[in-house]
Amino acid sequence: MNGLELSRAYFEAYGRPLLEERFPDLAPLVCAGLFGSGSECLGFDDDVSRDHDFDPGFAILLPSEDVVDRRRAFELERAYDKLPREFQGVERPRLAPVGGPRRGVMRTADFFRDKTGSPDGVLTVRQWLEVPSHLLGEAVNGAVFHDGPGEVTRIRESLAHYPADIRRKKLAGHLLLAAQAAPYNVERCLRHGEPAAAQMALFAFVQHAMSAIFLLNDAYEPFYKWGFRALRRLPVLAIEAELFEYLITTGNDGQLAHDKLEVVEGIAEDLARELVRQGLSDVSSADLERHAYAVNDGIADGGIRTLHILVGA
User: Are residues 3 and 11 in contact, defined by beta-carbon separation less than 8 angstroms?
Assistant: First the structure.
């Protein structure tokens, strides 16, 4: 049983009865579920994950104080804290995890403000471009077990994907940075006799090419340590994960450097083919820089289109 399943089972055993029997006035007003930070919210948790911040708890999100006042919120918080501390062999910790609480009672506005900068999920163009993708993902990941008013579900749905023009802007920036990193800077660093710098250029290529693939899948890229695992689960271009691993885990001596540049070219061809297939670019070559500007040129909103091409990368 993974963390999400454990949390749902704990909620059905103790959380739902708590709301329906002891707080029937609040049940129609609150949302409960498991979402936010933590590998369990992505379905990526395993035995290693249980060494910290792993417990059967869940989050309860409350509306504003004019709907549920501080006294009633405090009473619900106290009741949550008194729920059984052990469930199916897993114990709820007594200390909050590093970075603040991930479970228990909190305000809906505080949760979404923490993830997106907006209390209601309504983002400006600047926010859409600047909020890290992993935080947007944390705003919509996991699962909702109960949503009385439906407010949290509506916010999550509004944040589930980048708006089309924002997606294009971010994609264009990542394509351009990937093109600048490899093969261009890799080859130059190698000619300068700087294999470590060449490896850093490959890291940059992998980083931005990966980001482009998540955008091509219309998916948020998670925190870096989960990037490869998430990439392998994507429906489009998941095969590139093995090639990316090869690029950043091998050296740059002799023939190996030449072979890696051929891999880079192959990845660029795959990206270019997918860009054309999705109608995001009409460039016939595998030149990712040309594709970057073609993707940017396809942005409908003139204000977004004329922003610097790297503003969202």
Answer: no
